[in-house]
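Sample log: MFS transporter.
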Amino acid sequence: MPTLSSRASFWTAAAVAALALWSSAAPTLAYPLYEAQWGISSADATWIFSAYPAMLIVVLVLFGNLSDYIGRRNTILLGLGAQIIGTLVFAFAPGYAWLIIARLFIGAGVGLALSPASVAMVEFAAPGKKESAGSVTTTATAVGLALSTLVGGALIQYAPLPLHLNFFVLAAVTLVVFVFATALPRHNPAEPAGRWRVRPIAIPRGSRKLFGIGALTISAAYLCGALILPLGAQIAHTLAGSNNALVTGSLMAIFPVMVAAGSLLTRTWHVRSLTFTAGITLIIGLWLFDLTGSVPSLALYFVASALAGLGYGLSFTAGLTILTRFAAPKHRASMVSGGYLIGYVFQGGAAPILGAITTGSGIRTALLVGAISYTLIFLVMMISARRLTTPSPEVAAAA
């Protein structure tokens, strides 16, 4: 296969980013079936979910700068290969333990592929459009998340093999993207000298304050995901009265649709404005989710999902923009990997806690605890964003 052009490479990297969220969210609508057919609890379901960020964290710590040495293409291929394995393990899983193993493979795959794909989109972006790469990355991940809920909902509700066919389709799509990724250029400006070895993610001293703000902003988005992804289907079923997997998937799809809409419509905003607006919409959205505990309503669930999705999109775009625009090319992979690492630490910790509260005290209590604790974190994010400045001339020129 001939080497792809910069434009084709950009969109192939976007497809890799989309698959990262599709594969991570693919089991979401299957959790109620696992609970019904295999007898697992809500806490068990959130442990399945948490295996993914746990492995992803390990991979980011050990291999966060790998693509700076062996190239974006090779690292992406390793990640997609692991995602295919994990998806097939899900498809053939005979029991609970195998679901954990599947999530570990998918976590490893996303940990390897998502950061270099995000960086590659900046590097392959057309001249003058590098600043919009963050919003396109966010949109791509939103498309992947929407596909996971809509395709998954349709296949689980109406197709045969509801616990299997969803994953076969995802594995086939991932294989197609893998083939295209083999034709990516080995494009890696300012590649460090020497061989790669395991080392801590290196954040340049002068960028650490900005890195902290960017990582916290990404973490805010991922905390929202820790509530929506493992518990969203149960929220719709228990609180909003939805018994149809496709209806539930469609309701959950408004979340990624608003992620994409918010990212695209605000791509010219300054990151301070993005972050402040993200915090406001996330807070309102989460408290509306809490309100569904007292007022079960599909309409209320719809509005809550829309606002939470809008906040997620703005927050993720702002964080990714900070981490890519404020970093020199040779540090981009480390900066982005570090941001994802912090985000997944937050997500991996929040999901099992919320799951345990749901199992022990009910989903309404979990929603209330999540709304209170998340509000405090979102307020800190909004205050921190006031310290943002423009990139230095050196970094801006290198970008």
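Observation: The chain has one domain: 6-186+205-398.
Observation: Residues 110 and 174 are 12 Å apart (CA to CA).
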